[in-house]
Amino acid sequence: MTKNELPLSKDEILDAAEQVLRRYGPDKTSVVDIAKVLQVSHGTLYRHFESKAALREAVTSRWLHTSIAVPLEAIASGTGGSAVERLRLWLDTLIQTKRKFAAEDAEMFAMYANVTVIEVEMISTHMYRLIKQLEQIIEAGMASKELKQGNSESLARAVFLATSRFHHPSHAGEWAMGSLGEDFESVWQLLLGGLT
Amino acid sequence: MTKNELPLSKDEILDAAEQVLRRYGPDKTSVVDIAKVLQVSHGTLYRHFESKAALREAVTSRWLHTSIAVPLEAIASGTGGSAVERLRLWLDTLIQTKRKFAAEDAEMFAMYANVTVIEVEMISTHMYRLIKQLEQIIEAGMASKELKQGNSESLARAVFLATSRFHHPSHAGEWAMGSLGEDFESVWQLLLGGLT
């Protein structure tokens, strides 16, 4: 007899998986542990996710979406005001969010950093979404003549890649260094010179 | 009775250490293994290097100097011709050298990638040297009016940081992706827009 007689929703499963992954860490978590929290058999869980890796990927993907992409989307889709200021706010928010999570949500961040290396397709999708947001800001800036005309898609990709040092998880170890703010400022000024 | 009655030179020790580190990998190498190759006691070796970590750091530091910094120095100190072309050649050489080593000299590259994380001071010195080379190129470009006037030190640092994705070892896993050449081209065009 299971607690859930209704079919499990994807979010219920991911909530339980996230909770267990945070508690035990990715290595020590088993699908059985997650099934236990949901009070279902692990067979039931396997009908929804074919492996622990698939569950971990889905948890990370949801976390990236709600914690990173959605808040940034609100900035990117803003209208009115300066596109340059919006671009700077978007980058600052991305960088601050990553740093905050690296420090305060270390389990999820470690899982994400790990996924970055192995789940290339999922990360490409996430990157693609963020670069599209940058493109939106850059296009607004071109329309308002704040930014010079150019290929907004290629420029958006370039801005994202050129700021990797400040938001890519494999640099997290360097974020604690004192010169980070000054370093970003020098990159920002250089990029802005190329955009305006 | 040791083979070397003359004092060991630093380079002799590092040659032996590099040979053993390549053969066994950093984890399995011991100072005793290195001493054996040199036919000295490990006590003799400890008089030169206080730990295996110190030896590994010295080997990596020498490798960075001879394989990366010296060839780039030859480009940076070149005179005549276009500073923009020199800047591009310098970046291309840095990126190609790193990629080549990641693929063809995997043991040294893995050791270097590891050192990047733990030996912050050594890596800062290496970075500082490379950024000084960039500064030299940028100053030449400002002198010849190819590049617009500005703070060459800050611009050199910005160019180095903004291209991290293409030369920092923690991105080595991404270098095999197909879009790398195109990605670098978009970053290069953006940076060039900021510099000229």
TrEMBL record, chains A, B:
Domain of life: Bacteria
UniProtKB keywords: DNA-binding, Transcription, Transcription regulation
Every HTH tetR-type domain range: 7-67
DNA-binding region: 30-49
InterPro entries, sorted: DNA-bd_HTH_TetR-type_CS, Homeodomain-like_sf, HTH-type_TetR-like_transc_reg, HTH_TetR, Tet_transcr_reg_TetR-rel_C_sf, TetR_C_27
PANTHER family for this protein: HTH-TYPE TRANSCRIPTIONAL REGULATOR RUTR, TRANSCRIPTIONAL REGULATORY PROTEIN
Protein name: HTH tetR-type domain-containing protein
Lineage of origin: Bacteria, Bacillati, Bacillota, Bacilli, Bacillales
